Amino acid sequence: MNDTTVQAAGCVLWRRSPVTGDLEICLVHRPKYDDWSHPKGKLKPGEDALGGALREVAEETGHTAVPGVELPTLRYPAGGRPKQVRYWAAEAVSGRFAPNAEVDRILWLPPAEARVRLTQPRDRDLVDALVRPREHR
Q: Does 17 have pLDDT greater than 70?
């Protein structure tokens, strides 16, 4: 990996529905890009990936999260440079969303609806990676 690769991290944030107890996944809407994605962002210099992922969750969703398993790393071009984003499954444990300049809305959706709402097809694989192990328990 060369030094020009943008390093980022994020989480597939999940919770149990307060109504049904079913799995729900949090998606964030970024008005700058008018897209729906998982909370993620660039790492600060010297920041470890998991710490950065949890920081981004807090900044973008207002929620504190407990990290779980690491999910697949995504690699794709962004702004003419290669980008690498490491992801973790993370359970939302507390917090409340407040709109900000970066994220104006969040949605808690069942996995099938989250897959459809996500703007980038590559992000759908992360939903599958989160859900698949749960289906075999």
A: yes
User: Looking at residues 99-109, what average pLDDT do you find?
Assistant: 96
pLDDT digits (tens, 9 = 90+) for 26-82: 999 999 999 999 999 999 999 999 999 999 999 999 999 999 999 999 999 998 999
Q: Which structural domain, as residue segments, surrounds residue 122?
A: 6-135
CATH number at 131 reads: 3.90.79.10
- 44 has which bridge partners? none
pTM of the model: 0.93
Q: Which residues contact 67 (CB under 8 A, 6 or more apart)?
A: 11, 50, 53, 54, 88, 89, 90
The span from the CA of 28 to the CA of 101, in Å, is 12
**C-alpha separations of 116 from 22, 27, 109, 128 in Å:** 18, 11, 10, 12
The number of domains in the chain is 1
**DSSP one-letter code for 122:** H
**Would residue 63 count as lying in a domain?**
yes
